[in-house]
Amino acid sequence: GIQEKLDHITYLNIKTIWITPFYKSPLKDLGYGAEDFYDIDPMFGSMNDFENLLAAIHDRGLKVIMDLIPNHTSDKHRWFQLSRNRTGKYTDYYIWQNCSQAAGSITPPNNWVSVFGHSGWQFDAVRQQCYFHQFGKEEPDLNFRNLAVQQEIHDIIKFWLGKGIDGFSFSAVKFLLEATHLRDEPQVNKSQNPETITAYSQLYHDYTTTQVGMHDIIRSFRQTMNQFSSEPGRYRFMGSDGEEEEDIEATMMYYGTTFTQEADFPFNLNLINMKNLSGNSVFEAVNLWMKNMPAGKWPNWAVGSPSAARISSRIGKEYINVINMLLLTLPGTPVTYYGEEIGMENIASENVTFPEKSPMQWDGKANAGFTESNSSWLPVNSDYQSVNVEIQMTRSNSTLNLYRELTFLRNNELPIHRGWMCYIWNDRNVFAYVRELDGLDRVFMMVLNFGQESTIDLTAVVPSLPSEAFIRLSTNFSNAGKAVNTKLIKTERGEGLVLEYKTAKPVHTMKAFQGSCFVAEKACYSSAFNLLYVNC
User: Fold this and answer.
1) Which residues, at least 6 apart from 197, have a Cβ–Cβ distance to it below 8 Å?
2) Is 141:147 a contact under the CB 8 Å cutoff?
3) Distance of alpha carbon 86 from alpha carbon 126, whole angstroms
4) Count of CB atoms within 10 A of residue 246's CB?
């Protein structure tokens, strides 16, 4: 399990492990609908196993955060069973409405649809009413307008923080509240026959997402977590989902305000959601976050997730190293999905529902060293004998070794850890930026190629650049240690360079770059989570 692989985490200089849901669950939706928030599904182990894992993680100086999905439960949850029978206070723990059922068809209260498609209302024969579900019909939504329900979630937070976990990622929080008036949601295509509405994308979700009062609930979660953050070195991290990329201002609301604390950050999926890869598109994805992030807040970046195709499959193997270089040299907290450190690909099979969730490839033995069983729940990728941790640890030019070199650089060089970032170049091929720190004359400059072979003259945009810069790291390992002419910086397709030079005139002090430079201000730094926070 995770515990026996903790050496891999420390080898990569990673500080925090984020574990997706392991609550007791029927596993209808990969564990995102809990049957019991206070227990662990036997498939993953026991509470004793978890406590041993937690102790082992903390013994290594690492942290662990968990997913918490407060929006809904499994229909097997005790609360739901009591609610469908109208038992005491549990009667209104879920969202129940009258609806009619005739000849096997249901007439729901309105046109609201599930994220997974089709009506969000499900008739329950026991209660003779419909319950609302934003996700699968086996995952009824909790009624967060009921204060007793809110208290239940606070109690769950306290339980796990009391166990010693270091924080939560709150998922699906924009779905916590629905409008009480139950009006139909507006159609995207007003001329479409309402009876043919089945897909989530066919409606504007004005009444089922981000309702007034939702942020108050999330802030109350933060207040409960802060009760456990008073001990020295025991700050409790809080992450959350955001909104759609098109509504960046709504996403930034999850940071809270100067006076009211909310999430440390909403998770940033901009780099995952890019439609096309180029120097310009990467710049736009980075800048969208940085220019909208409230002052004094801390950014974060992810290039892979459990719900997106892997980097190698999404944009091509040739870009895996330069994408990791981007991730680990941007300001803020980087988040890596397991396997991206060795360049794992999706399973190439049409019969697999979750091609990006295949077992971690540890070595070239049976089942890639993931399990000693005869088979795993998903097949191992067919390339596991050539793409695995064991073999890449022996190769100095491997994706794994570059990842480790980058995390070492990040952990040991303050400008990259938490200094200024200034954009200096972007075109269809290349995105370039510098990382600087006040009072330090050493500058790191990243030149990252996301297109085709390119040669650029950076002295044309930064006249104070020295004529030569030293290659600290390169995706082409044979180039490390060489000097490059800053007037003619050549990169191949998918190549990335971390250049280092000295200057008496940092870019962030230049008037011409005032709108292109960012630094986190008015905050304290927590090395445990690689983040800044304001309650200090």
Assistant:
1) 111, 113, 187, 203
2) no
3) 10
4) 8
> May I ask the CATH architecture of the domain 73-143+182-206?
Alpha-Beta Complex (3.90)
What six digits make up the tokens of 259?
């006076």
CATH class label, 418-533 = mainly beta
- CATH assignment of 1-5+15-71+147-177+212-267, given 3.10.620.30, 2.40.40.20, 3.40.50.1400, 3.20.20.80? 3.20.20.80
Question: Do 403 and 12 touch, CB atoms closer than 8 A?
Answer: yes
The arithmetic mean of pLDDT across residues 40-61, rounded, is: 96
Read off φ and ψ for residue 116, nearest 5 degrees.
-85, 0
CA-based torsion, 73, 74, 80, 84: positive or negative: positive
Per-domain boundaries in the chain: 1-5+15-71+147-177+212-267, 73-143+182-206, 418-533
- Cβ atoms within 10 Å of 454's Cβ, excluding its own: 19
What number is the average pLDDT over the span 159-164? Answer: 97
Backbone phi and psi for residue 199, each to the nearest 5 degrees, phi listed first: -95, 145
159-176 b/e with 16+ CB inside 10 Å = b?
ebbeeebbbbbbbbbbbb
User: In the beta sheet, which residues pair with residue 68?
Assistant: 170
Say what the pLDDT of residue 414 is: 92
Tokens of 89: 């206070």
Question: Is pLDDT at 471 greater than 50 in this prediction?
Answer: yes
Band of residue 527 on the pLDDT scale cut at 50, 70, 90:
low
Angstrom distances, CA of residue 12 to CA of 55, 333, 368, 526? 20, 15, 19, 19
Secondary structure tally for the chain: helices H, strands E: 12, 25
Strand 16-19 relative to strand 63-68, pairing: parallel
Q: How far apart are CA 521 and CA 353, in angstroms?
A: 44
Neighbours of 118 (CB within 10 A): 13
The tokens describing 528, both together, are: 């445990």
- Compute φ and ψ for 469, nearest 5 degrees: -130, 150
Segment 264-299, tens digit of pLDDT: 999 999 999 998 999 999 999 999 999 999 988 999
Q: Could you tell me the two tokens for 270? A: 């901009």
Q: What is the pLDDT of residues 214-228, one digit of tens each?
A: 999 999 999 999 999
Gyration radius (Cα) of the chain, Å: 25
CA–CA distance, 289 with 305 (Å, rounded to integer): 18
Q: Which residues make Cβ contacts (< 8 Å) with residue 254, sequence separation at least 6?
A: 173, 215, 218, 240, 241, 242, 262, 263, 265, 266
pTM: 0.93
Q: What does residue 162 show for φ and ψ, rounded to 5 degrees?
A: -65, -30
Centre a 10 Å sphere on the Cβ of residue 139 and count the other Cβ atoms it contains: 28
